[in-house]
Amino acid sequence: MDAVERAAALRAHAEETASCTRCALAQGRTQVVYGSGNPNAELVFVGEAPGFHEDQQGVPFVGQAGKLLDKLLAGIDLTRPDVMVLNVLKCRPPGNRDPLPEEIAACEPHLFRQIELIEPKLVATLGNFATKLLSGKPAGITKVHGYEQEVTLGSRSVLLYPLYHPAAALYTPSMLKVLEEDFARIPGLLDRAEEEPDEVEVVATTPEADPQSVQLGLF
Ligand code: SF4
Q1: What number of H helices and E strands is found in the chain?
Q2: What is residue 143's DSSP assignment?
Q3: DSSP per position, 155-191
Q4: Closest residue to atom 6 of ligand 1, CA basis
Q5: Phi-psi sector, 7: left (phi>0), alpha (psi -120 to 50), beta
Q6: Which atom of ligand 1 lies nearest, measured to the CA of 29?
Q7: What angle do the packed helices 128-135 and 101-118 form, to 10 degrees?
Q8: pLDDT tens string 167-177
Q9: Which of 13, 17, 23 to mutate to test the pocket of ligand 1 (most atoms within 8 A of CB)?
Q10: pLDDT grade, residue 194 (50/70/90)?
Q11: Mind listing the domains of the chain with CATH numbers?
Q12: Coil, strand, or helix at residue 123?
């Protein structure tokens, strides 16, 4: 899939997802927060779920944690348009509570489809929920942050890189220092992923809807 086809496929998928009612979170949301960034990004971040501001604006990581994410990206000479930012859940849990297992189970096909379409080299998980879901392992973020691992997502081999969630580092200087150190390894991991081509054949995907009809402005 070339860059234009990939962007069109993502827009079509975003349009489908916008009306999702697979779990009860559909009832309280302002809108589905699909994701934002570069459809052809080599680096994808996966957080937890939209908060108040994200639910209002329809864009992930726009609050204080988002500002910190921007700062961390700037520290490695990247900006939001260089990467794609997604969440495990696309709708805001009430009161910003933790995602429930049944909500994750209902929503995970959206995330896996997004990653399948984007075909990133590196997936950086932010916090416990994204890390456990995409690693398929129960180990918590405290143990696995800063250690990359090879995982197979869909038909592709991807380098997974667990990180603390920026929200956890907002008011804890020691955790922020760890997050900055872990972020500093990202450029090297991207170089490494570039040198190691996928061993599994990638299957091209054809968009099912007319991308021209979708007006999302997310990409
Ligand atoms: S959280 Fe996910 S599964 Fe639940 S309604 Fe929103 S998009 Fe659908």
Answers
A1: 9, 6
A2: H
A3: TEEEEEEEE--HHHHTT-HHHHHHHHHHHHTHHHHHH
A4: 91
A5: alpha
A6: 6
A7: 70
A8: 999 989 999 99
A9: 23
A10: confident
A11: 3-194 (3.40.470.10)
A12: strand
